[in-house]
Amino acid sequence: MKGVEPQKQLSAAQRGKLLTTLKDRFEQHLNRHKGLTWSDVEARLELKPEKLWSLQEMERTGGEPDVVGRDKKTGEVVFVDCSAESPTGRTSACYDREGLESRKEHKPKHNAVDLAADMGVELLTEDQYRELQTLGEFDTKSSSWVKAPADIRKRGGALFGDRRYGRVFIYHNGAQSYYAGRGFRGVLRV
Predict the structure, then answer these.
(1) pLDDT tens-place string over residues 123-142
(2) Residue 27 CA, distance from chain mean position
(3) What is the dihedral of CA 164, 168, 172, 174, to 10 degrees?
(4) So where are the chain's domains?
(5) Is 171 exposed, middle or buried (CB count within 10 Å of its CB: 0-12, 13-18, 19+)?
(6) Which of 42, 80, 128, 165 would staple 124 via disulfide (CB 3.0–4.6 Å)?
(7) Residue 85: CB partners within 8 Å, gap ≥ 6?
(8) Is the pTM of this model over 0.90?
């Protein structure tokens, strides 16, 4: 795997286990990726094996990544964290580094933006979050940070979403806030 950092490679056993997990999830939730077959996904993964490390990180932190579609322009397969609740391995994180550094006390260990970058994924946008919610009911007991538009972030704010009362809500909070029940969902294009 040329160009991949050695510490970001999976062993053959890890790769096999991850591919089996992803294939099983893909087959259990066919409604999430109509028009795609597992062989389509596997072919994309073979072209971009470096993406397996990011998928492993999504899995390791509780995201349960699954395919939610294909980009019509690029042909890329789109994976999103599809765990019922915000991934437990990514909770208690404020929005970004600036939010983290602005806290005077009780600082969390992580921030969502940097953690996503370290994993090789991006936070879902508000539109992507709403689209995910058409594929099932997510974040009924938790909430997930979504990518904040620059004008909101410039004013110190950040956005998060959840599902309550049968509806999807997008709210605002200070970027420095964090909660045990709020993490983030990532998107990865392969």
Answers:
(1) 999 999 999 999 999 999 99
(2) 20
(3) 60
(4) 1-190
(5) exposed
(6) 128
(7) 138, 139, 140, 141, 142, 181
(8) yes
